[in-house]
């Protein structure tokens, strides 16, 4: 039996690195937070985690929400991992993000963002657990 990693990994793609650092610190009780500083540099690390972690998030701010490299990376991750999710704060064009992306108002407080991520991560854990259990039963 392979070990199951149930703690979500949340990559934060914010232009303001101070805000990203603060969010990483504040999410430590429920997730592994990481800053995505440069898409071209961190792409391999991120995609490696997409294949390793069952629950992985990409949190994007308004300033980064129209970055084509970031959107392409999110779409690839969505294709590779059924439990990959994006959360975009203040997206100008929400329809270009992958299906299942959570869109939040640009005026959302950091506490509201973290609470939403915590709640959605718990729901994903439950769904993931049920699906894995059903697949085990089907393979018997």
Question: Can you give a write-up of this model?
Answer:
A 5-stranded parallel sheet has the order 2-1-3-4-5, with helices on both faces. The protein has helices spanning 17-26, 39-52, 68-80, 110-138; strands spanning 9-13, 32-35, 56-60, 84-89, 102-104. It is α/β, with parallel strands linked by helices and 140 residues long. Helix content is 47%, strand content 16%. The protein has 4 helices and 5 strands. Helix 2 (39-52) packs parallel to helix 3 (68-80). The model has no long low-confidence stretch (mean pLDDT 90).
Give a count of the beta strands, DSSP E runs of length 2 or more: 5
Please state the oligomeric state of the protein chains shown. single chain
Gap from first CA to last CA: 14 Å
Structural class: alpha/beta
Mean pLDDT: 90
Compute the gyration radius: what is it?
Answer: 15 Å
